[in-house]
């Protein structure tokens, strides 16, 4: 019983720190966010941050993982509403790119994340997205909708295209214009995977 309560308290502490960091990173950016301020806002100490995340960078990783997971779930929900599996796969990629316009996603995941955590394609959350795309492409190849190419290669290229398009939108001075170009190019590139009609 005591072990269960301790685990619940630890999870509650992690949740408070992530919520506070998410707000601070979104409003001020990772570099300007003060560990003392964000831990005080959560009603905790720096010690709690170090114990749960190792350091501020570990906390950023947890925040990025959470937001990236939410992005993936939202994109999959958009894809699930499409008429066909192929249209759903395209809709997921487009939805991911469009999220680059959202201030929290833009600042934390697409600007500060790569700057402080390195290559986004190596993040654990991106690997989860890759596996979902891979499974969908394997199904589309089996149906004959997609050409018989290596499914992993195709999944990596599709996910990479969506991620790089989102990074481009986030870093742009004219994100709406860039978004339109990026989405059009993403659709054209992805369309090259389709099997020839008939």
From TrEMBL:
Keyword terms, alphabetized: DNA-binding
Keyword Manganese carried by entry: no
Superkingdom of origin: Bacteria
Residue intervals of the HTH tetR-type domain: 11-71
InterPro entries tied to this protein: Homeodomain-like_sf, HTH-type_TetR-like_transc_reg, HTH_TetR, Rv0078-like_C
Gene3D superfamilies registered for this protein in UniProt: Tetracycline Repressor, domain 2
DNA-binding region: 34-53
Keyword DNA-binding: yes
Annotated protein name in UniProt: TetR/AcrR family transcriptional regulator
């Amino acid at each position: 019983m005591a072990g269960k309560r301790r685990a619940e308290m630890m999870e509650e502490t992690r949740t408070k720190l992530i919520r506070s960091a998410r707000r601070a990173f979104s409003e001020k950016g990772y570099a300007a966010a003060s560990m003392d301020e964000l831990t005080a806002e959560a009603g905790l100490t720096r010690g709690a941050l170090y114990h749960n995340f190792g350091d501020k960078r570990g906390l950023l990783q947890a925040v990025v993982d959470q937001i990236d997971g939410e992005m993936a779930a939202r994109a999959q929900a958009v894809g699930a509403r499409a008429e066909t599996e192929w249209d759903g796969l395209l809709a997921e990629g487009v939805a991911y790119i469009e999220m680059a316009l959202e201030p929290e996603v833009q600042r934390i995941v697409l600007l500060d994340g790569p700057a402080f955590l390195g290559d986004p394609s190596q993040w654990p959350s991106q690997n989860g997205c890759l596996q979902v795309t891979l499974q969908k492409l394997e199904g589309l190849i089996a149906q004959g909708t997609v050409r018989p190419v290596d499914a992993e290669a195709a999944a990596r290229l599709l996910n990479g295209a969506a991620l790089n398009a989102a990074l481009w939108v986030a870093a742009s001075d004219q994100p709406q214009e860039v978004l339109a170009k990026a989405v059009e190019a993403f659709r054209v590139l992805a369309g090259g995977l389709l099997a020839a009609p008939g």
